Amino acid sequence: MYYLAIIMGLVFYYLYKKGYLKLKPDRKSEDTKRHVLKMAEKKYESGEMSKEEYDKIKNDLNNS
Predict the structure, then answer these.
(1) What is the pLDDT of residues 15-44, one digit of tens each?
(2) What value does the mean pLDDT of the chain take?
(3) 54 in a domain, yes or no?
(4) What is the DSSP string of 25-58?
(5) 47: alpha, beta or left, given left = phi > 0 and alpha = psi -120 to 50?
(6) pLDDT for residue 55
(7) 56: in domain
(8) Structural domain harbouring 46
(9) What phi-psi label fits residue 24: left (phi over 0), alpha (psi between -120 and 50 degrees) or beta?
(10) Residue 50 has what pLDDT?
(11) What pLDDT is attached to residue 10?
């Protein structure tokens, strides 16, 4: 019974270190960043957003 707990612990540790298990979802995926940037681009081109707002969003996404 103890061996099962140890093996499961090692498996979870391995998966955590490889990045399959994320305890903190604070990072945005690259797909999400691209989608947000594309939407900001569309709003900027249509005139719904100023150049400063677009640049701020772009810089925030590149720095995160």
Answers:
(1) 888 877 766 655 557 778 888 899 999 999
(2) 84
(3) yes
(4) TTSPPHHHHHHHHHHHHHHHHHTSS-HHHHHHHH
(5) left
(6) 92
(7) yes
(8) 24-64
(9) beta
(10) 93
(11) 93
| DSSP assignment letter at 23 | S
Q: What is the pTM of this model?
A: 0.53
**Crossing angle between the packed helical segments 30-46 and 51-63, to the nearest 10 degrees:** 170
Task: Give whole-number Cα distances, 2 to 6, 12, 30, in Å.
Answer: 6, 15, 40
Residues of the chain with pLDDT > 90: what percent?
45
Q: Which amino acid is at 37?
A: L
Flag whether 11 is in a domain: no
- Of 47, 43, 26, which Cα lies nearest the Cα of 35? 43
Please give the C-alpha separations between residue 56 and each of 21, 29, 36, 46, 59, in angstroms, as whole numbers: 31, 19, 12, 17, 5
Under 8 Å CB-to-CB from 27, ≥6 apart: which residues?
A: 64
